[in-house]
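Lecture notes, unit on protein representations.

Consider one protein chain, 293 amino acids long.
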Amino acid sequence: MSMDHFSEYKAIQNDINTALESYFMTDCPQKELLDAMRYSLLAGGKRIRPLLLIKFCEISGGERAAALPAACGVEMLHTYSLIHDDLPCMDNDDLRRGKPTCHKVFGETNAVLAGDALQSAAYFSVLSAPVAPDRTAAMAKTLAFAAAEQGMCGGQYLDTSKEGRPVTQEELCVIHRLKTGALLRAACVMGVQCAGGTPEQVSAAEEFATNLGLAFQIRDDVLDTISTEDELGKPIGSDAAEKKTTFVSLLGIAECGRLVRFHTDKAKSALGSHFADTEFLCWLADLLAERRK
């Protein structure tokens, strides 16, 4: 069965990549800006957020084709956050997904503008989804909340403001619930909204994503400790070098492994009987928990 799931995973990933390829192709005076946007948007990655949006739409009774513009919008917003994350004023990273970061290739000014433009384009894409206007409005509202001060940007602020200072496990969970978890949560909820799902399905999607996000981040911290730069495609050990508190520095690798499993199982059980078919999402949660990059 897992091979079938893997084939489905690759098929959805392929649909997302094909759709993303069609954006920002206009020949115009600001073509270098479009090139910078495409460079980061098409640089690879697991496409987890758009994939979750599509899957939650499908298991809530919706169609993949209707969900694709919203899924692309979520990936654009995620990409904008990575471009800005890598800037010298933030994490100052030179590598992302095994390639030089956007500001290394196009310069800081163009990287900032590429991030800004991708954020706006994300909402344009979500609002262009071929579903009823009340559904596109609901999705855009969900994404806006997840991106702003109570979500991703708020989490990034808390993360940068705590640098060099001790952080408790509870504070670390709050940071990552916002910084990593908010957009994952939005993707899952938007999938349900795209299909016109029930409030119960929205709640189940939120609970699934909250736990998946924590498991994802804890596994990330473990990989930053045990992996290689070639495997991850980005610098490793930077958190330790900057004396940044991580789940590994607080709890150790063994306890992190236990927590990844705990939150993964909690995510899977949150799906309950609210959806038509949860097998693929349960398989995906396990895959992410055991990933090597």
